[in-house]
TrEMBL record:
It comes from the Bacteria. The keyword tRNA processing does not apply. Pfam families: Serpin (PF00079). Keywords: Membrane, Transmembrane, Transmembrane helix. This is Serine proteinase inhibitor. The chain crosses the membrane at residues 20-42. GO terms for cellular component: extracellular space. GO terms for molecular function: serine-type endopeptidase inhibitor activity. SUPFAM superfamilies: Serpins. It comes from Bifidobacterium cebidarum. Belongs to the serpin family.
């Protein structure tokens, strides 16, 4: 992944001062259930050691969950319709959590209308230090009895010709746990950034970062979710099956597992159905399977996508979950015996900066991208320099297969509760056509939302 044209001085003659790009580089790695003998044998020991030194996870506050989740659903439709590079099949893997975190950090250096726009779009107007820290703890903390790993990290890289405003520096270090580096932003710094990304994505990604001579600031966020199924798929049950993609039919490896008490949700008009396959830390991979002909209708409508992905998600299901809604939007959800067929898949996505910028402008973040309107005056102490966001790049990877870790930390609520039907409904759920997915934390914060169109 190359970071071209990120940050440089731009002279505005009518103002007689410099305008400087600030780069927000979002580099995101996801291994939902990674494969490979080295990862599985050597990696387990490393991950278990890392877990021992982590503080226990704490739940994110309702405010933090609501803000990040709302941004996730509102921004997802634009990204799911993009055609990211590195993927000619139309598959998309997007991390709203990483985008939200990097922009929330940048907003700490904004002022005036610029900050107002960013906070409104991110839903962070009323968030305080405790809210941000709770979200970090929920993602970075240790979940007892779990081999699954989640982590997020932030860093701010500033050219040593400039000095960060002390309040901004203190905020990003204490509230966002950011690593602040002051150094000449040259080729050596670019290599250090690549190594930092590699380290904080557990070796999954090491993009090639290129910096221009006048680059001033780069903000980098990484998110990693390494989920181990609570009940792993059995490799010997994987067979070849036809996936009916938008580009035609192809034979793919289809994993199979029968889940007892898995919550199965569907809308009243049968335009979609949904399951959430649990990881051993209480998080889940939610799979949304639209009916034939309904895929585009869902991803093009923000409210339909939000409704389909989130209604009754994480609820208590002792007595089922029924919701009233406009005609055709009603949702029923209840525990069932579900025979799941899920293809193995890998997606690499890199979103072009121009496309990302346009998507964020539609959410109301516009001033920060223009040198004449951006107000990032709280970011540095330089009186003669204006900062504006010149580019935003996000790179992601997801790999899903049979492997996981057997643990008992997560139990589907209400699977055997009083009032449940004596004989569970049997459901066949086979993702053999375009589907959507969402990976969530135990607090139901969407870390990744994606679309699989072709395999």
């Amino acid at each position: 992944m190359e970071n071209h044209g990120i940050v440089h001085h731009r002279t505005l003659q009518h103002k007689c001062k410099h305008k400087v790009h600030i780069a927000i580089i979002l580099v995101v790695a996801l291994i939902a259930c990674a494969c490979g003998g080295v990862w599985w044998t050597v990696g387990d020991g490393r991950l278990l050691t890392m877990q021992l030194f982590k503080p226990a996870a704490k739940s994110a506050t309702h405010s933090a969950v609501d803000s990040s989740s709302d941004f996730a659903y509102r921004s997802a439709t634009a990204f799911l319709q993009m055609n990211p590079s590195q993927n000619a099949q139309g598959n998309v893997n997007y991390s709203p959590a990483s985008m939200w975190m990097a922009l929330a950090l940048a907003a700490q250096g904004a002022d005036g209308e610029t900050r107002s726009q960013m906070e409104k779009a991110l839903g962070t107007q009323s968030l305080n230090t405790a809210d941000y820290q709770s979200l970090l703890s929920s993602i970075n903390g240790r979940y007892s009895g779990s081999q699954s790993q989640m982590s997020t990290a932030n860093s701010v890289w500033v050219d040593n010709r400039y000095t960060l405003n002390e309040d901004f520096k203190t905020t990003v270090e204490t509230v966002f746990d950011a690593d602040v580096q002051s150094l000449p932003l040259n080729d050596a710094a670019a290599q250090r950034m690549s190594r930092w990304i590699n380290q904080h994505t557990q070796g999954s990604l090491e993009p090639r970062i290129t910096l221009q001579s006048n680059e001033v600031i780069s903000i980098i966020n990484t998110v990693v979710a390494d989920g181990r199924w609570q009940d792993p798929f059995e490799p010997e049950l994987t067979d070849r099956q036809t996936f009916h993609g938008t580009n035609g039919d192809h034979e793919v490896p289809m994993m199979h597992q029968t889940f007892h008490g898995l919550v199965w949700a569907h809308d009243s008009n049968s335009t979609w159905q949904r399951i959430s396959i649990p990881f051993d830390n209480g998080g889940a991979l939610t799979v949304l399977l639209p009916a034939a002909g309904s895929f585009d209708d869902i991803i093009q409508d923000t409210e339909k996508l939000r409704w389909a992905l989130s209604t009754c998600l994480g609820s208590s299901y002792q007595y089922g979950c029924m919701t009233d809604a406009p005609e055709g939007w009603g949702v029923a959800a209840e525990p069932a015996l579900v025979n799941v067929g899920l293809p193995r898949f890998t997606i690499d996505s890199t979103f072009a900066s121009d496309d990302t910028t346009e998507a964020l402008k539609k959410l109301g973040i516009s001033d920060v991208f223009a040198p004449d309107t951006a107000d990032l005056s709280k970011m540095t102490d330089s009186a003669d320099s204006g900062l504006f966001i010149g580019s935003i790049i996000q790179g992601t990877r997801i790999e899903v297969n049979e492997q996981g870790a057997k643990a008992a930390a997560f139990t589907q609520a209400g699977a055997e509760a009083a009032g449940a039907p004596a004989q569970q409904q049997v459901v066949e759920f086979t993702a053999d056509r375009p589907f959507l997915y969402m990976l969530t934390t135990p607090d139901d914060v969407p870390l990744f939302i994606g679309a699989v169109r072709n395999l």
